[in-house]
Amino acid sequence: xxxxxxxxxxxxxxxxxxxxxxxxxxxxxxxxxxxxxxxxxxxxxxxxxxxxxxxxxxxxxx
Length: 62
Description:
mainly alpha
């Protein structure tokens, strides 16, 4: 996760959009910045995308 720590929220979202896979460190940091760490930590294979989507919406104001 240290490689992403210096990125702004917008840069995190851009990096996420560039990847063709879910980087667990990047996803965790996006959720952390959105205040959803606990939900992310309890997410499973069925709902992790919804938690991540909510985090992205919170960070982008969408």
